[in-house]
Design brief:
By secondary structure, the chain is of the alpha+beta class. The protein is built from five helices and 16 strands. The strands form two sheets. Strands 1, 3, 4, 6, 11, 12, 13, 15 and 16 form a nine-stranded antiparallel beta sheet that branches. It has a seven-stranded antiparallel beta sheet with strand order 2-5-14-7-8-9-10, with no helix packed on it. Strand 8 and strand 9 form a beta hairpin. Helix 1 packs across helix 4 and helix 1 packs across helix 5.
Length: 312
């Protein structure tokens, strides 16, 4: 191949990358990261409430754990973020101890009641090979489904993601380090139990075991994020936040990410020039490459999509 053909091929490949990133961006809605907590400061935020049972929540070593194995029914860490529907939650979850029982469960909660924390939830329930939807104290969806990887393993981290809207509830789970499935594992209209109104409150379900009935749940969480859409709530977004050095818990961080991290050439704005830098570095590896926006060690399509999503 002569030099002219080589340059032409490189330019063609460059434009393919840029158009692919733009297509990936325009195929999803531009949205906001509404809340994020990495639990790194070792202090439980005073905004959090514990309902209906208090449980034994401890924030330590960059995670938060519900340590009481039999906390009572039910035990939520609740955040009143006044989130409008629809919204999506993403969290890392690790089961630390478990005994099968009807009251043994953990996961994500939505539309939680301001009085007792009851709401809709996406849960690991009863056994480690079962996922299910619950309308607390009203009805199970009875949509028992095995995770795509078979069963949750004690001590292993997983991503759990769920979305609430007037159309219904959807959820999925996958092991950290594995690719996210494009499809939801569970989807359902809100037709199980009496309909709950939107409350803007979300939560982490730390168990519901009642001592006299048996069972045990000890569970840890990390990197809890609330977003406007499911497309925004991804592990790549978490990586971008971490790489940007944004610590603690904070609302609406996307503008901060753009200012501190996506403005690669430091000209005060995120624009096509930043996209060009990423595209021209495509495929490069290393831990100190500024074009590696999400900090995963390689400049790839995820970095292009993040920059395109940050263009005003």
């Amino acid at each position: 191949m002569n030099m002219f053909e080589s340059v032409t091929t490189q330019k063609y490949f460059f434009f393919i990358l840029v158009y692919a990133a733009i297509f990936a961006w325009t195929s999803s809605s531009c949205s906001e990261i509404l809340y994020y907590d990495d639990f790194e400061d070792g202090k439980i935020d005073p905004k959090y409430e514990f309902k209906e049972q208090k449980g034994g929540w401890i924030e330590k070593d960059g995670i938060i754990t519900q340590t009481q194995g039999t906390p009572g029914d039910h035990t939520y860490l609740v955040l009143n973020g006044e989130f409008e529907d629809p919204h999506t939650a993403l969290v890392m979850i690790r089961v630390d101890d478990w005994e099968n029982n009807e009251y043994t469960r953990c996961g994500l909660g939505f539309r939680l009641d301001s009085d007792n924390g009851s709401g809709y939830s996406f849960l690991i329930h009863s056994s480690l090979d079962n996922m299910e939807f619950l309308n607390d104290h009203r009805a199970w969806k009875q949509n028992d489904t095995e995770p795509p990887f078979g069963a949750v393993k004690i001590g292993t981290w997983y991503w759990m993601k769920a979305e609430i809207s007037d159309d219904g509830l959807a959820g999925k789970i996958w092991e950290v380090g594995e690719p996210e499935s494009k499809d939801w594992l569970l989807e359902s209209p809100l037709d199980f139990g009496r309909l709950r109104p939107s409350s803007g409150q979300v939560g982490l379900n730390g168990g519901s075991v009642i001592p006299r009935y048996g069972g045990l749940t000890v569970v840890s969480f990390d990197n809890w994020m609330i977003c406007e859409t499911a497309d925004e709530c991804t592990p790549d977004t978490v990586l971008a936040i971490q790489a940007a050095g944004i610590a603690g818990n904070l609302p609406i961080v996307w503008d901060t990410i753009k200012d501190r991290y996506l403005d690669i050439n430091n000209d005060g704005q995120v624009n096509i020039l930043d996209l060009v830098i990423v595209a021209s570095s495509f495929g490069e590896k290393g831990t100190s490459n500024q074009a590696d926006v999400n900090g995963d060690g390689v400049v790839n399509i995820q970095d292009l999509v993040l920059v395109v999503n940050g263009i005003n």
